[in-house]
């Protein structure tokens, strides 16, 4: 492993730690609570950040998503197409996630995290400059895709932690 991938592994480890800290001990009702009429609940935020990570890592590895490979889609039993990641979801779609158990959210996230770290352990420094998405101008390199993924995941886990603080009134 090189210094760049070590930093990326550290970033994804921190995301996993924050997901676990944010979700552990919450009731399904807290996981589904919306602090405003159209606000995203903790459950949806964690599901979405995990789905996006799963989708993007599967795309760059050319492998099936953990979501389908390990039957998480069946366990969540959501009324969305299997490929849904939450992008473009309406307020009604967000509500459709319902009130999943903390262990379900954490289990899926840990599975995706393990896949991500396993992949990063094989990435060489030169791989980070490879184009992985030419639909953008400029085209997206692997390094840019991974950093973007870290940024999105950190943003959403921070939002989820903030909601937890509001719900628990800072008492835990």
Task: Give an overview in words.
With 172 residues, this protein is mainly α. The chain is 62% helix and 3% strand. The chain has eight helices and two strands; from the N terminus they run αααααααββα. It has a two-stranded antiparallel ribbon. A hairpin with a 6-residue loop joins β1 and β2. α1 runs antiparallel to α7. The longest helix is centred in the C-terminal third of the chain and has 27 residues. The radius of gyration is 16 Å and the shape is globular. The protein starts with a helix and ends with a helix.
How would you describe this structure in keywords?
two-stranded antiparallel ribbon, DinB/YfiT-like, DinB superfamily protein, mainly alpha, single chain, Four Helix Bundle (Hemerythrin (Met), subunit A), 172 residues, 62% helix
- The structural domain count equals 1
The major beta sheet can be summarized as: 2 strands, antiparallel
Give the spatial strand order of the biggest sheet. 1-2
**Uncertain runs with pLDDT below 50, 5 residues or more?**
none
Distance from N terminus to C terminus (CA atoms, Å) equals 38 Å
The CATH topology corresponds to Four Helix Bundle (Hemerythrin (Met), subunit A)
What portion of residues belong to β-strands? under 5%
Question: Helix proportion of residues, in percent?
Answer: 55-70%
- Could you state the order of secondary-structure elements as H and E? HHHHHHHEEH
The number of distinct helices, counting runs of at least 4 residues, comes to: 8
Going by CATH, the homologous superfamily would be: dinb family like domain
CATH class: Mainly Alpha
* Structural class by sheet pairing and helices: mainly alpha
Radius of gyration: 16 Å
Q: Per the principal axes of the C-alpha atoms, what is the gross shape?
A: globular
- Summed over residues and divided by their number, the pLDDT gives a mean of 96
- The counted number of beta strands is 2
- The CATH architecture designation is Up-down Bundle
